[in-house]
Amino acid sequence: MAAPSPTNPDWLNKGDNAWQLTAGSLVALQSVPGLMILYAGMVPTKWAVNSAFMAFYAFAAVLICWVVWAYKAAFGEQMLPFVGVPGPVVAMDWELRQAVIPAANITANFPMSTMVYFQFVFAAITLVLMAGAFLGRMSFRAWMIFVPLWLTLSYTVGAFSLWGGGFLFKKGVIDYSGGYVIHLSSGTAGFVGSYWIGPRLKSDRERFTPHSTLLMLTGAGILWIGWNGFNGGDPYAASPDAGAAVLNTNICTAMSLLVWTGLDMTFFKKPSTIGAVQGMITGLVAITPAAGVVAGWGAVIIGVFSGSVPWITMNIVGKKLSFFQHFDDTLGVFHTHAVAGFVGGFLVGIFATAEGCLAFAAVSPGGAIAGNGKQVGWQVAGALFIIGWNIFWTSAIMLFIKHVLRIPLRMTEEELLIGDDAIHGEAAYTFGEPNMHAIAIHGHDPNRKTKPAMAGQPEKQD
After folding, report:
1. Which residue, 48, 356, 381, 452, has fewest beta-carbon neighbours within 10 Å?
2. CA 9, CA 155: separation in Å to the nearest integer?
3. Max alpha carbon distance in the chain (Å)?
4. Nearest of 382, 359, 356 to residue 370 by alpha carbon
């Protein structure tokens, strides 16, 4: 018998490898350009460049940190019950090996390079999603430091604990594709971080009108379709469970969008495209921890709750409780990601089927409907760990940047008043005359060293 070719080793399944690379690329497109376009469309014109650039920067910064030390901290050999041993993954002989997650005893039929890339796009989108809570006032310099620190101290711990073979993985907590690791963590961190950064200008908080609804919808469409890779790639194979995950993802998302739109029409008398996008996002988030382990009817039920519970927290609870007034969460990331992620994680404890868990090779035998009622308790325990860890480390990182590194978390008053022109010397729409545009729109010429005559006095923080 001939020896296996180094280009076609015995363990390689070309279909699995092709699907995994495709799924990873779909998730990458959700961040770049999906969320870049969504953010740029959802904010006023003066914040379009900065908002998109925050996402663009995070995507690049996470990748370098990921291959130098963070991947192994999240998916390598266990160092502590909640984190692995950090280290680089850039050696060619290592990249060509069969993919293995050692602490979880998981082996896939594609190379390590594919696994590293696939897991990177999940890490990157977590930071990009969190940025939605900070738009319109976080210092870009502070963001540049925050991204690698939060990835290292927070994301890797959640990923290892739930996916990489850590203590929550071993207890059977179900997080199919990141309802906790990605969405609950980014929603919690975004909410807490918004407190430490401080609020936007009062004028921006009172009138933060999306400058392009069509751009927003384009970004939302990329996000929705890209989620087929987000959830469909997590069986690590082009398997029947991958197909079930893709179908359930779309069922839940559609149901959630319809419920949110129905509530908007009932209470606000008009169907809102912004509301529909929020309902779409909450549906995508809530099905993520459950996608391949629930039946289609379970996806419908999760969609009903994901379209209603975050709607209530955003439009009723968030507006009536004074507690929320201390947190200027720009795009409502707490409601769309933290609340929706918790709802999905809780409901998977009820609706996970024995067949779905078996197909996914999950540690858990299923949820309450499969006779395993204690799964609900473990789901809550897993959520509480992620919430607590993120509250502590997000706060610690923000305070470290502000008080130890002496880098302001919030932009200057002038930057807040002017926006992109003051921060980057660029504007979203220049019409071929960037300097003239800057002068005409904001009274600010980035090539001048004197303060702009038309800008007026910076608005005082209320």
Report:
1. 381
2. 33
3. 82
4. 356
Place of tokens 């035998």: 365
Alpha carbon distance 41, 215 (integer Å): 5
**Residue in 164, 162, 216, 219 with CA at minimum distance from that of residue 185:** 162
Q: Which two tokens stand for residue 185?
A: 């963590």
For every residue of 328-358, DSSP letters joined together read: --TT-HIIIIIIHHHHHHHHHHHH--HHHHH
pLDDT digits (tens, 9 = 90+) for 64-114: 999 999 999 999 999 999 999 999 999 888 899 999 999 999 999 999 999
Burial 348-365 (b: 16+ CB within 10 A, else e): bbbbbbbebbebbebebe
Neighbours of 297 (CB within 10 A): 11
CB 415 within 8 A of CB 446: no
pTM: 0.91
Distance between CA atoms of 16 and 22, rounded to whole angstroms? 10
According to DSSP, residue 294 is labeled S
Domains of the chain: 14-404 (1.10.3430.10), 427-462 (no CATH)
- 139-154 pLDDT, tens digit per residue, is 999 999 999 999 999 9
**HSE toward the beta carbon, residue 190, CA cutoff 13 A:** 28
